[in-house]
Design a protein that fits this description.
Blueprint (H helix, E strand, L loop, with lengths): L41 E6 L14 H9 L13 H4 L2 E6 L8 H17 L3 E6 L5 H8 L5 E6 L19 H7 L3 E11 L11 H6 L2 E4 H7 L1 H12 L3 E7 L21 H9 L5 E8 L10 H23 L3
Parallel strand pairs: 1-2, 1-3, 3-8, 4-5, 4-7, 5-6, 7-8
The structure holds manganese (II) ion (2 copies).
One manganese (II) ion (MN) binds next to loops.
Amino acid sequence: MDALKPARNYPIMSNPQAQPRYVGIPTFFRAPHTQDLSAVDIGLIGVPFDGGVTNRPGARHGPREVRNQSSLLRPINTATGAQPFGDLRIRDLGDCWIEDPYSLAGALSEIEAFYRQVVAAGVTPVTVGGDHSIAWPILRAVAAGGPVGMMHIDAHGDTGDDYMGSRIHHGTPFRRAVEDGLLDPTRVIQIGLRGTSTVPGSLWEFSDSSGMRVMPMDELHDRGWRWAVEEARRVVGAGPCYLSFDIDSLDPAWAPGTGTPEAGGLSMIEAQRIVRGLMGLDIVGADVVEVSPPFDVGGLTAFHGASMLFEILCVAAAARVARGG
Ligand code: MN
Ligand code: MN
């Protein structure tokens, strides 16, 4: 069937990613939308769920706004030369939306069932949340075959325990994942942790005692992003690795639109260079979480979320190619 509005003068513009960036229905990076998993290498997935937040809500609106802002990006990474869309079939799979959003445990079960289908089809999931509680059910699918390592970039360790009577919330996904045997804590590094605490002593007690490498923001700031990359590569090693990026790892100057901001965070260029430094790790899944558009200023946080999503996509694509496409 002929297109209703064909590209007459510029045939290359039949490719959505070659069209002017302000036109069309926004998918992630203007990638084609499909729910046919048979012809997809990397699936970009929105999880519009924020039932696990402990303070300011709104991350349920993250995927739609990150899709919108991601249309500002072009398909080639000039810093690394990566061209993920040229190498692989990268598709927007739409949203993993929640049928029973008022049941937190039920919502996470829905997310797990969705991701089990994606993983079973051999698709590498790259997710936009949503609050960080969604990482636990995603890991239940991604790590179903055995524990994985993790590169975790966040202002928070997210290895807390019960809060106000609930053992599930966005401050606890990685404690639950360790308990479930989904993460090998000796292959987990947490970078950028900081902020104030309600209890004296280490806020990251479970992270430390389980064997994770915790790199608080002060250490990162003293030793620099190159050191952070070296440590991450040493800790994660050669095995399968999940990459989880909480937008609140960025300084609130870069990412004001998030639920639990903490002063004194990463700059955007530091975060970009850290993720670029992960090239060669065996990334088997990734996420960008906690973008909360109602608290955003001029789309800044969603734009930086989309920009980090692109950097993450580039390293995830390289890993996919290294595994044989
Ligand atoms: Mn956080
Ligand atoms: Mn988090």
